[in-house]
Amino acid sequence: MMTIIQRQYETAEQAEHAIAALQMAGLPSSSLSLIMGMPERDAHNTRVGGFADGHGHDHDAHAEPMGSFGGDGHDAHAEPMGSFGGGDQHAGRVGGFADVDRDTVTSFSAGMHRVSASSHQQIVGMLMEAGMDQASAEGQLAAIHQGKALVLVQVAPQNVEQVNSLLAMM
Known about the structure:
Layout: E1 3-9, H1 12-24, E2 32-36, E3 104-109, E4 112-117, H2 120-129, H3 134-145, E5 149-155, H4 160-168
Antiparallel strand pairs: 1-5, 2-3, 2-5, 3-4
Helix pairs in contact: 2-3
């Protein structure tokens, strides 16, 4: 019977540091998982109007108009993006092709890591298998959408205290 330890970190870098420390302490890489997500983005907050760093209007992307092919420039932040099916173009956030839900689970094995896209349902299920109730698992899912990272460590019961003390040092 194995025990799964979960630890939340403020950043992916902190979580990766914890995983590296656990690997250096001799834990098998196959017992480690890293769950991360990306916060929802709004295209209103995205830089526009430049082609490469140092060119265009890099000093303030919101102050200058964005070019248009064969026509006058326009202010990409003042004009709404299109809508589907005639919906209200001026309501809510602005989406784009880069707005995908990026929840990932990284597994480690033989010095390599594998990143897999995962659905909300898969992550909640994984966390519930690790011993969380549904409300806690959904809370962790919300946290990873705010940029936090979650490390899962599968260990034998006799190693739980050692792993917890290693993680507490991070």
